[in-house]
Amino acid sequence: MRRHWLLVGACGWVLLILMFVSKFINFSFRIPGDFAGRADMFVWTMPSVTTKLPSVQRPDKEASQPYILSSVSPSVVEPIDWQSVNEKRLELLSTVCRNSSLWNLTHTNVRKFVLDRIFVCDKHKILFCQTPKVGNTQWKKVLIVLNGKFSKVEAIPENLVHDHERNGLPRLSSMTDTEIHQRLNSYFKFFIVRDPFERLISAFKDKFVKNPRFEPWYKHDIAPAIIRKYRKSHHDDSESVGLQFEDFVRYLGDKPGRRHLDRQFGDHIIHWLTYAELCAPCDISYNVVGHHETLEFDAPYILKAAGIADLVSYPNIPPGITRYNRTKVERYFTGISQRDVRRLYAHYQGDFSLFDYQRPAFLLD
């Protein structure tokens, strides 16, 4: 009888131990919300000894080993498998590309304008499509190092990065049709996106407010033309006030009416063109679509997936600095009519849908 009760007691302890351990077996991870604090939940269960974690893969190369990404902050833990995050993004992209109701907003012919945006690294078989105002300068530095012009990104002068005559970065448009098709079909291809409205704010600040690269044509030519056509109230010193964000929004939302101005502005409009117009994501099969909001995790994943993680490093990103800032968006859109915001959203709706950015209801409804 004593042995019986000892056995029951031992079983009870075993059950308590299993209940305690089970609390540490399942882990929930959150990807930082792209919009208004939204968070998508991914659940990863600790694999058994015989189960292998999915690894980062590059086309035509051996699979690399899985890696663990550090958390953004103590309260946010990131998934170990960032490859699955990218796969979900590509699945959504493919689904939206097939949506006939958005076809005109998501599809672009792969013409010279698009090929001009794509930079080539033949040495490591990489194509990078430039999407302005999402941290492209740093990725250009990565490619410059890979092409052998400099040994590390920190050594590259800022004025060289955007000097396409000297930076050693060939554009895909400079190649023959055969060379273009061969690279599009076999190279590792990627680009980066950002919340469409926050990107427009960044473009407005960079080109019409701060203008750090001293590009006078934005303030002296483009801004006055937009003001004359889209400012509601005109007076003698209207243009001296400078372009206001409201003028900019009204211009961007008037797609049919702004075509003449866009032809006049030339390639300078790339800073506010849609991602679909810049990179043709529904017509070119990209391997990775990175997000500016989670760049501290996308950057190491891209380097790993492209097989260059041991050759170059992406510049340090302070935690949280690339996160979506709803307060800033609300501040810039304050006072702008709902009609103008809705017209703006209608023009960029393809980008919102393709890359899983939530409709900004706090501005539209």
TrEMBL record:
<dbReference type="GO" id="GO:0000139">
    <property type="term" value="C:Golgi membrane"/>
</dbReference>
<dbReference type="Pfam" id="PF03567">
    <property type="entry name" value="Sulfotransfer_2"/>
</dbReference>
<dbReference type="GO" id="GO:0008146">
    <property type="term" value="F:sulfotransferase activity"/>
</dbReference>
<dbReference type="InterPro" id="IPR018011">
    <property type="entry name" value="Carb_sulfotrans_8-10"/>
</dbReference>
<dbReference type="GO" id="GO:0030166">
    <property type="term" value="P:proteoglycan biosynthetic process"/>
</dbReference>
<keyword id="KW-0325">Glycoprotein</keyword>
<keyword id="KW-0119">Carbohydrate metabolism</keyword>
<keyword id="KW-0472">Membrane</keyword>
<keyword id="KW-0812">Transmembrane</keyword>
<keyword id="KW-0735">Signal-anchor</keyword>
<keyword id="KW-0333">Golgi apparatus</keyword>
<dbReference type="GO" id="GO:0016051">
    <property type="term" value="P:carbohydrate biosynthetic process"/>
</dbReference>
<comment type="similarity">
    <text>Belongs to the sulfotransferase 2 family.</text>
</comment>
<dbReference type="InterPro" id="IPR005331">
    <property type="entry name" value="Sulfotransferase"/>
</dbReference>
<protein>
    <recommendedName>
        <fullName>Carbohydrate sulfotransferase</fullName>
        <ecNumber>2.8.2.-</ecNumber>
    </recommendedName>
</protein>
<keyword id="KW-0808">Transferase</keyword>
<keyword id="KW-1133">Transmembrane helix</keyword>
